[in-house]
Amino acid sequence: MAKRILVVDDDEMVLMALGELLKPEGYEVQTVSSGTEALEKLNQKGYDLLMLDVIMPEMDGFELCKKIRGLDNFKDTPIVFLTAKSREEDRLRGLEAGANLFLSKPISPDKLLEIVSDALGR
Amino acid sequence: MIIPAFRNLRIRAKLVSVTLFLVLVPLLCVSYLSLDRFSKALRSASEEDLEHLVRNIYSMCKVQQEMVQNKVVSDLNVAREVLYRNAPEITVSPETRIPFDAVNQITKETVKVTVPLWKVGDVPLTGNTTIVDEVQTLVGGTCTIFQRIEGDRLLRISTNVLGKDGRRGIGTYIPPESPVVQAIVAGQTYKGRAYVVDDWYITAYEPIKRKDGTVIGALYVGVRERSAYTLTDEIKGIKVGETGYVYIMDSKGMLKIHPAREGTSIIDSRDSSGFAYINAMIDDALSHDQGYVGTIRYPWVNPELGETRPRQKIHKYIYFKPWDWIIAAGTYEEEIYRSLYSAERFILIIVFVALGLGFFLTITLSKVLTKPIQELIEVTGRMVGGDLSQRVTVHGADEIGVLGTAFNRMIGQVQNYTSNLEKMVAGRTQELKESREKYRDISRFLNSILDSATEYAIVALDFYGMIIEFNKGAEKLFGWSKEEVLNKENIAITILDEDKERGIQEWMSKRTRTEGVCELEMTRLRKTGENFPALTTVTAMMDPSGKTTGFVEIIRDLTLRKSLERELRETKEFLENIMESSVDGILTTDLKGKLTYTNRAMEEMLQYSRAEVLGTHISRFYVRGIQQARDVMALLRAGERAENYEMEVRRKDGETRAILTSLFLLRDEDEEVIGTAGIFKDITEQKVLEAKLKAAQAQLVEASKMRALGELVAGVAHELNNPLMASQTVLHVIMKNLPEDFPERERLELISKCNDRIEKIVDHLREFSRQTRPEFSLIDVNQPIENALMITGQQLLNHGISIVRNLSESLPKIEGDVNQLEQVFLNLISNARDAMEDAAGQKELTITSSLREDKGAPRVIVSLKDTGVGIPPENLDRVLEPFFSTKPVGKGTGLGLSLCYGIIEAHGGKLEIQSRLGEGTEIRVVFPAKESGKE
After folding, report:
1. Which helix (H) or strand (E) holds B240?
2. How does residue B935 score in pLDDT terms, banded at 50, 70 and 90?
3. Inter-chain touch A24–B718, beta carbons under 8 Å
4. Which of A21, A84, A112 sits opposite B718 (nearest CB)?
5. pTM value?
6. What is the rounded distance in angstroms from the CA atom of residue B621 to the CA atom of residue B678?
7. What is the ipTM of this complex?
8. Are B2 and B326 in contact (CB under 8 A)?
């Protein structure tokens, strides 16, 4: 079964780019542009990997991450931050929020694919 | 006193009185004198008469007496003869003693005696009267033989002196006191008056002596005095005057001869005033020598004759001792003067007649004389009355006539003069009238001033300070009403007691009189007793001769002024205080710009004392000198004030100070400019601080600009991230799926390269915006230098740049972040490389690290010197600006130096840039040393 990835980012371009990148690799990519939508989707379906942007209106990535971690179904789901914020404290914060990885944009596509596949245990 | 009174009498009166005087006085004198003379003569004549009378009688008596006496004496001789006819002496027979009852002839005492018998011859004497009788027959007088018995008595042993009883006085004796006895006992003869037995006799006694001289008795012959009186009738018949007479009394006042009262004693007679005149006469007569004629005058009235008025009697008297007769003659004085009185009367009549005559004549004469004068007077009177046509009629050419003529001439002249005078007077009167009106106006004016000067007390005083005028102002000021003080009180009531004691009134009076005016401030007194400060001005009122007649005092109440003065003074002091204690300098100048005032702060600011600068021109202190002054003045004239004007001022020590000043024009009440004033603040320090602040601010601004920029850049970078990533990702995907020989592969790769560059740029941007906290530690500055050189060394060599290392070994450590400093040096080296890229000549980069001391603080200096193109001076300030770059586009972002600067600043260091166009640039990085180096 195809691994399902939820990508949360308020920037359409990013969502589009990641879709273009991940879909050919055979993943099912669901893109949402806000934390609220993300939580909705999470209610409906399960996902194998969550990719979160940090800087979003209304609910930022960290908050979302915490919330996701609060959900029974997604306690252990790998969450990866992909954000322009690259400071050490951001990284820590991300990890504290429950993410497994903290990546900075821009990131080379190859590297990203590698990380994804690692995370999904392929 | 008499003389002026006399002068005022009319001429006639004068004449009359003088004439009368001239007539009367001599007349009176003469009459008086003559009368006097006459009366005196009369008096003396009558007196003399009296005296003569009395004296004559006296002489007569005397003659008589002498005659008798002589006879008696010669009778004594006869008696003696008779006695010693028979025998030469008396025989005393002591065997025969005859007893006698001897009787003192005076006291009539009896004493029994026995006496020896006396005989003369055969004839016994004792008891025998033969001899004595014979004698008597012969001579007529009496005769006695005395025998001396014990006790010096003379006993009559034979006598024909008869006693009162008619019998012979045999047996009587003369007591020893008797002058007779005394004379006889002394062996002397006694002649004179003597009392014999019972009566007075004219006597002669001679002592009977024994052969041995002892007196044993006496022989006597005598004649009864009375019988000598043959003058009696004659005397009685003498008349003195009309009623006067002669009388004789003895020394006991017994009238011997008197026309009426013979035989009476008048010793106690008194005159009508009670005076015992007879006594007086007797005393007087007896007390004088023989021949003295006494005079007595006494008033006498005969009431029995109906007389009431006592009349003066005059008596003259003389004492005839032998007979003890006081011979007196007297009369009423008036009888003497009778003739005198008639003479007086006569003379008096003469006098009055003469007087009357004189009076009449004088009056007539004076009339004659004074008539023309009188006329003169009348004419003059009429003339005085106004009628100048009058003339005097001239009678005669005497002095009065001459006077009359002259008078007429005079009147004529006077007429002329008066008509001229009248004209003048008329003119003058008109003038006078006008001036009087003026005077009235002025006086009205003055009075109205006096009245309206209700704020000024105007008081007029007489010389002694008595108030003679007191205006409304004075009433108001002092509280007394005009009626209370005018001519009643002295101005002293408004003066304090202690001032009066000091003599202030006298001083004021004196001062005013000597200097004309006296003004002084003093405390005055109101009616209520209240004190107030007053200004008193006193002037003197003088009469035309310059003598001070009084004073005018003007008094002003200074209470208000004084309180205003005090306020003013306090305000002034307060303001001065403020001015002086002001921290800012305050200065004023006159119109010309010369200093008129500086306060203490200004003095300190300029370092000149007030005295040194007042009067000097303000441009002296301006750095820009007179031009500055002109500028300031222009500014003030244009705008009245110049606020917060900055200028430079030179102090006494020559140092220039930056001054902030507010200047303004000073104007007087008429809005005329009288000078300038300024408040000065030394802002030199402030400016330094400001500069520092500006620098700091600039830095802050820079920093915040930087921060903003950083944020902007971060934002941009951030924004760019996503599309960049998207682009890269999609492109990657595309490229991955493309065949090798895809014809557009090259173009796609170009796009990929573009993305890469974009990424680089974004990285740069991110780097720039990153504010990573540096991690400080004590480091050796050479380390990041070496690191940087290591990285760039090869590159530099490749560019043909030789590296010169001058890294000091024993530099003290600095506190810094190795990585960041590495960044800095990388950047600097990179810049140097770029600068030398197109440089001509040798490309050399010299890196030096050294120790420098900046004002005592140790600094570690890293110097990078290149031989590049240099930085043009106009760019020097801008090199640290972010995004400033002279490099062509794409070559550099211009962020490098600004980033370096940020890092260096964070290290507490400085960037020093020195550059010369065409020669090269040296960049020095200065770090504060944290640790002393190993020396």
Report:
1. strand B239-240
2. very low
3. no
4. A84
5. 0.34
6. 14
7. 0.87
8. no
